[in-house]
Amino acid sequence: MNKSTLTIEEWTSLNFENLTNITVLYCRLSAEDAKEGESNSISNQKQILTQVSQREGLTNPVFFVDDGFSGSNAQRPAFQQAMNLVQAGRVSNFVVKDLSRLSRDYLLSGQLTEITFPSKNIRFISLNENLDSSKRSSQDAYLAPLVSLFNNWYSLQCSEKIKLSKHTKAKTGEKIGWVAPYGYLKNPENPKEWLVDDYASQIVKRVFKEYLSGKPIASIANGLRRDKILTPANYKKKLGVSNYRVLESDPYHWKSQMICQMLEKEEYTGATINLKTAKVSYKQRNCRLRPREDWLIFPDTHEAIISKEDFALARKMLGHKRVVRRNNWKDKPGHENIFAGLVFCENGHKLTFCPQQKVDVNLDHYKCSYYERVGKTCSGSHYLRKEILEELILDDFNQIISTLELSEESLLEKLKAKFNIQESKKQNSLRKTLLKAEKRAEELDTIIQRLYEKQLLGDIRDERFRKLADGYEDEQAQLTQQILESREVLDSEIESAGNIEKFLRTIRNYTKLEKLTPQILNELIDKIVVHQPTGRGKSRQVRIELHYRFIGEI
Fold first, then answer.
1. Cα 123 to Cα 316: distance, rounded to the nearest angstrom
2. How far is it, in rounded angstroms, from Cα 258 to Cα 217?
3. Could you tell me if 152 and 210 lie in one domain?
4. Is residue 53 within 8 Å of 8, Cβ to Cβ?
5. Does residue 539 share a domain with residue 524?
6. Do 62 and 196 reside in the same domain of the chain?
7. Of 283, 318, 353, which residue sits at a domain end?
8. Cα-flanking dihedrals φ and ψ of residue 193, to 5°?
9. Using an 8 Å Cβ cutoff, are 243 and 269 in contact?
10. Pairing mode, if any, of strands 184-187 and 190-196?
11. Do 495 and 518 meet the contact criterion of CB atoms below 8 Å apart?
């Protein structure tokens, strides 16, 4: 290729192995730039840069084009290739239509134009700024740093406008994601509406079902790989709805991380969740996860794939930090850690699961690792066999189930007594008293206001006014305290009654249990507290506290 070449090739079609003295004709267009019209189009940039290369007689001109990339992002394919050639010493000239095509980051622009290009003896030309490093006498050339600063400011402004627009839409509940989560597809007629993907949704249900049954995450991933289920990215790419980077060599390579991400995706309950992440900087694509309290959650905006109850249970189980077991019995049948995240010692330390086998005897047990540490920060090892714990809890579960089947009313009364819930008649009486107090408090507001008006008009002496006002204000203060206390009692009883109903609704799903599973345990139990054993040998006793979900100890 020589200076007389009329047709200039693009970098993607060339082999640079033996090519030197390259003239980089760099073109860039972002979505925001495209709004400015034809002047910034790729075709227009190419035309202008072709004329420059011919006029100046620049050697080996090659187009490097990044179409659809922001100027604040340095990770552009063509730009990176051009910079690789710069660092290799193969570039003689670098030409752009204007400095903003090179970068909208003033630090990067300054680094390239003031340090990198001069050190590599590269002639840099920017047409709009009349900047040509071989003609440094040009007055306009010295305005380059100011131009770069302006470009940086422009990029920041664009970023802020986009962020504001995104946040405004997010607050209305509008879905602001580009791609629907795995398990859903965007409605072709309305991109803001998600439709359930019949195939992918079954994979989502499978993952949740297997996880809730106690299957390890790694085993779930292995099962999907074995059954040749495309990973979410590969599946989306197959449908042509995303440009995700995928592992071409193994499209079925499910990882444990993918399973965890799926189990944490609340969108499967039918909720739209906006502002989950935030960009680290407008100059970077990297995002960080916001605190959950900053999320905008809009429930029931689309069809659910997973029930709210199952998602909450999976989330609870996922929050349990599973212990890595370093022995030969890891993940062996009969040695599962079904109580993962549920067992604690009386000092609040989570007990460690220790799978163990001696000949034909299963010796799986739990113990407090804090007792073994330097200083022994726990009062004891709190050693307890898993088998014994299973028997105790299974027996307690079945007792509750039996009581519920024989007389739900007696169990209900027992729970009401635990929470000091009053009878309906007493609750109604308390409500009437509360309403009466609230009505009287409102009347006192009116009376005191009128009293002040009379005092201002001179219809009542100051001494008489003060005496009446003090009396009414004392009465009002007493009523306010009474109203506050009554509301607290009623709210507490309403909350407790609701928790009792949640517990009964859960336990009604079970008949006599023969075996415990992680799903059953996590549905019914918040935590198990193991106290330090007393006595030795046959007289050894261990007190265990079972804290049930919603109601605590019974």
1. 61
2. 10
3. no
4. yes
5. yes
6. no
7. 318
8. -110, 135
9. no
10. antiparallel
11. no
pLDDT in tens, 111-142: 888 889 989 999 999 888 778 888 765 445 44
Residue 430: φ, ψ to 5°: -65, -40
Given a cut of 80, whether residue 295 has pLDDT beyond it is no
Tokens of 267: 């969108």
- Residues 486, 534: one domain? no
User: What is the domain count for the chain?
Assistant: 4
Q: What is the DSSP letter of 350?
A: B
Please name the helix (run of DSSP H) or strand (run of DSSP E) that holds residue 64, with its range, or none: strand 61-67
Asked whether residue 18 falls in the same domain as residue 125, the answer is: yes
3-state SS, residue 45: helix
Are 54 and 111 part of one and the same domain? yes
Ramachandran quadrant class, 341 (left: phi over 0; alpha: psi -120 to 50; beta: rest): left
Q: Which two tokens stand for residue 350?
A: 């989570």
Task: In whole angstroms, give the CA distance from residue 507 to residue 502.
Answer: 9
Question: What is the Cα–Cα distance from 51 to 46, expressed in whole angstroms?
Answer: 9
Quote the crossing angle between the two packed helices 217-226 and 198-212, to the nearest 10°.
Answer: 140
What's the Cα-to-Cα distance from 244 to each of 5, 78, 238, rounded to whole Å? 38, 19, 10
| Neighbour-count burial of 491, counting CB atoms closer than 10 A to its CB (0-12 exposed, 13-18 middle, 19+ buried) | exposed
Distance CA 486, CA 496 (A): 15
502 and 537, same domain (yes or no): no
Tell me whether residue 176 is in a domain: no
Least confident of 169-183, 255-269, 460-474, 478-492: 169-183
Q: In Å, how far are 22, 72, 76, 119 from 102, measured between CA atoms?
A: 17, 10, 11, 18
- Hey, is 289 helix, strand or coil? strand
Determine contact, residues 282/320, Cβ cutoff 8 Å.
Answer: no
| CATH number of the structural domain spanning residue 38 | 3.40.50.1390
Which residues constitute the domain of residue 368?
Answer: 343-416+517-548
Distance CA 479, CA 470 (A): 14
Over the stretch 428-447, which tens digit does the pLDDT of each residue have? 777 888 888 888 888 888 88
Over the stretch 194-248, which tens digit does the pLDDT of each residue have? 999 999 999 999 999 999 888 889 899 999 999 999 999 889 888 887 666 666 6
Strands 22-29 and 91-96 turn out to be parallel
Please indicate, yes or no, whether residues 127 and 61 belong to a single structural domain of this protein: yes
Q: What residue has token string 């407008």?
A: 282
Whether the Cβ atoms of residue 195 and residue 184 lie closer than 8 Å to each other: yes
d(CA 346, CA 30): 60
Backbone φ and ψ of 464, nearest 5°: -65, -40
CA-based nearest residue to 378, from 366, 390, 387: 366
